[in-house]
Specification:
The protein is mostly beta strands. 0% of the residues lie in helices and 13% in strands.
Length: 115
């Protein structure tokens, strides 16, 4: 089992926060650099009780008004957003459990990836 720590960067900060939600850090009113602000945000899944429990699962955010009330997104700062769907968003509504991704492409920030 390999776990991936929660990583969230707040706008204006020079370094991301690791292992703590924005809520637990008392920063729930601030805005993350990568928010859940659009249909198709790509985020790391994790157990509810362990911010550092991400492993091999991720999810696409499918807009739900009760999770994203105006001016207050209940997911921001609780999960690591690491990308957005930039094309083919119409396909997201057709996805089901156990569907497979055949390919994915990093279009920005690839130079920051570390082995």
């Amino acid at each position: 089992y390999r776990a991936v720590p929660l990583e969230v960067m707040v706008k204006g900060d020079k370094e991301p926060m690791y292992g703590i939600t924005m809520e637990d850090a008392g920063r729930f009113r601030e805005e993350p650099v990568l928010p859940f602000s659009s249909y198709g945000a790509l985020a790391m899944a994790r157990p509810e009780t362990d911010p550092n429990g991400g492993s091999s699962q991720f999810f696409f955010f499918l807009f739900e008004p009760e999770l994203t009330p105006a001016g207050r997104n209940l997911l921001d700062g609780r999960y690591t957003v690491f990308g957005y769907v930039t094309a083919g968003q119409d396909v997201l509504g057709q996805l089901k459990a156990n569907d497979k991704i055949i390919s994915a492409k990093v279009v920005e920030g690839g130079d920051l990836l570390k082995a």
